[in-house]
Amino acid sequence: xxxxxxxxxxxxxxxxxxxxxxxxxxxxxxxxxxxxxxxxxxxxxxxxxxxxxxxxxxxxxxxxxxxxxxxxxxxxxxxxxxxxxxxxxxxxxxxxxxxxxxxxxxxxxxxxxxxxxxxxxxxxxxxxxxxxxxxxxxxxxxxxxxxxxxxxxxxxxxxxxxxxxxxxxxxxxxxxxxxxxxxxxxxxxxxxxxxxxxxxxxxxxxxxxxxxxxxxxxxxxxxxxxxxxxxxxxxxxxxxxxxxxxxxxxxxxxxxxxxxxxxxxxxxxxxxxxxxxxxxxxxxxxxxxxxxxxxxxxxxxxxxxxxxxxxxxxxxxxxxxxxxxxxxxxxxxxxxxxxxxxxxxxxxxxxxxxxxxxxxxxxxxxxxxxxxxxxxxxxxxxxxxxxxxxxxxxxxxxxxxxxxxxxxxxxxxxxxxxxxxxxxxxxxxxxxxxxxxxxxxxxxxxxxxxxxxxxxxxxxxxxxxxxxxxxx
Length: 472
Hints:
Order of helices and strands: HHHHHHHHHHHHHHHHHHHHH
Structural class: mainly alpha
Strand content: under 5%
Number of helices: 21
């Protein structure tokens, strides 16, 4: 079940609203229990067999959090920290990387049977949340939670459970025990608008671009026209942004409806003027997780240049592998490592002196190339596809390019506009009073209703509705 499914919109969410808001606000523990029950049911809809994996993660991190509390002895605290780490990383290793390891050993002649292991939905996200909770408790940055239901609700809360954003415990710590107050109606209204904007981005933009990307990447790149290769890469560049940022919008909106205030996960990354800036704007919850729990503990940048490069390389190797157990993801991480290291040590100062349009062009080119690596099934395909983009396919243009541009013309224009901070630009320039103030207040709400209607039409008439980050 996904947020953009009829099952979710017509059955799950109304049933949750009915059960949750029928409970008086003063009985928040009961409301929390309702949320937890629906969250576990939501996860079970994606695979009942893997519900024990989620419950085990909750139980282990709850116990390890108790052990890691500051009042314990250092030895016990370290036991809690290492227990959470070994369990979480071990669980990822078993479910996510065993097949990858065996396939590579077989490539060296091992001849081992490749296990068929189904990856539990969202395992990378809820594992990282559990780890961050225990680490923060160990560091003294978060209070140890002695109520197991609060830990369970934090890890399993359905808006961010299967595809993020990765929510830090300190972000919602207070709201687990106390929320609502006088801003409940305002929160619900803002959350609804945010959710519907995310739904519209997913159904109207991401899915349209996904249809183009799938059609292009399904072809052999060896004879592909350069224009078609570029168009397919551009379509996937839009698809992955609007797909993932739409899910984050819907997650943040749903959280707001129930009184939780998740942090932003995307800040218009395609307006960045360097790769460094791009990663300050893209999947912020993941990049800050690796910064705070891997990069800085390894020494960060407060060390020699050589050690700093090793730290940066370790982070991007892990970031690539976090996204998937394939060499293409390792190459994707390596590509960003080279670019970030280059900007830090070689061409960063020169880049800053270039005109804005050149900085932006350089960043977009680097990002588009990265998405080709990310989307390709293997390294050979990625190399061939990049060759087609460089014109090695033998043709500069073909009719397919024109067809996809004309057939999806409105979607291309909408994607270009939606990737820009148009909403912020309007908010900064429209006064808060008078007719413009009414437009500021009611414009987004009316637009959200229009997006809901258009999204429902797409849902009722189409079947193409994947979520890219569900596989992680």
